[in-house]
Amino acid sequence: MRISAALIFLFAAGCTRYEFDLIEPPDLAAHIGRDKQTILKRDELEYRMQAIENRLLMHVVNPTDDPIELIGPQSTAVDPAGQSHPFRSQTLAPHSYVKLILPPMRPYYRTGPSFGIGVGIHAFRGRYPWGAGYDDPFWDEPVYLTVVDETDTLYWDWEGEGEARIRLTFRRGKEEFHHNFTFRRKKL
Question: What pTM was estimated for this model as a whole?
Answer without folding.
Answer: 0.70
